[in-house]
Amino acid sequence: QITLKESGPTLVKPTETLTLTCTFSGFSLTSRPVGVGWIRQSPGEALEWLGFAYWDDDNRYSPSLKSRLTLTKDTSKNQVVLKMTNMDPVDTATYYCAHRLPYNGDWNSGYFDYWGQGALVTVSS
Amino acid sequence: EIELTQSPATLSLSPGERATLSCRASQSVGTYLAWYQQTPGQGPRLLIYDASNRATGIPARFSGSGSGTDFTLTISSLEPEDFAVYYCQQRSNWVTFGGGTKVEIK
Q1: How far is C-alpha B8 from the chain's CA centre?
Q2: What is the DSSP annotation of B17-79?
Q3: Which residue, B64, B62, B61, B84, is CA-closest to B72?
Q4: List of chain A residues whose C-beta atoms are within 8 Å of the C-beta of residue B87
Q5: Which of A43, A106, A110, B88 has the fewest Cβ atoms within 10 Å of its own Cβ atom?
Q6: Helix (H/G/I), strand (E/B), else coil: A5
Q7: Distance from CA of residue A90 to its chain's centroid?
Q8: Chain B interface includes A49 (CB < 8 A)
Q9: What three-state secondary structure class fits A70?
Q10: 3-state secondary structure at position A115
Q11: Nearest Cα to B78, choosing from B104, B55, B53?
């Protein structure tokens, strides 16, 4: 059974760097075509895709946020870490990690078949 | 960026009724479209992918259709647990989501 869970701070200050950890079970991020995605949802708003972390570290990022995002993985801990720099109040959102439905090709995109419960992050001084 | 427009924003129906939700893309996405269901406090649940394929464990009352720019999610007979927000998502060019349709109890 695949499960994912996000963890990290609930409050960050403007200009700080956000670090969130996705801890997963039921799969391994060590072989093709496994990937983990990050998606966020501002209060009352729609969903916004942030990026994918892949087994081969050839990670992909939303073009609009690429300069601020870094995804890394720790396969021994079954974790993917998201770092987002220069946080702003508009980045206040629930951040989700999700398992990418496995298929080969088009690594810039995908569907998400298992999701975490989400982590609410508020950006405020 | 491909924009997805969902309609209506809110659908008020009674249990047992048929629900028809629409998603329109700003350019063709082929059949690279998915539908998700989200209930309060939960992450979205994948219902349909590649326009018409039901995800694992999804009841047969959920069906998807369409291609190109116009897509439909149909719930044949609403169960109490189906009252939720539904999102479409495309994977033809990067990933974008629609604004959602809330299915509420009439």
Answers
A1: 11
A2: --EEEEEEESS--TT-EEEEEE-TTS--EEEEETTTEEPTT--TTEEEEEETTEEEEEESS--
A3: B64
A4: 46-47
A5: A43
A6: strand
A7: 17
A8: yes
A9: strand
A10: strand
A11: B104
| Percent of chain B's residues with pLDDT above 70 | 100
A98 CA: distance to closest CA in chain B (Å): 9
Question: Quick one: closest CA in A to B33, which residue?
Answer: A111
In tens digits, what is the pLDDT along chain A, a chain of 125 residues? 999 999 999 999 999 999 999 999 999 999 888 999 999 999 888 899 999 999 989 999 999 999 999 999 999 999 999 999 999 999 999 999 999 998 877 888 999 999 999 999 999 99
Whole-number Å distance between alpha carbons of B25 and B2: 7
Separation of alpha carbons B17 and B22, rounded Å: 17
Q: Do A109 and B94 touch (CB under 8 A)?
A: yes
Residue B71 CB-half CA count within 13 A: 33
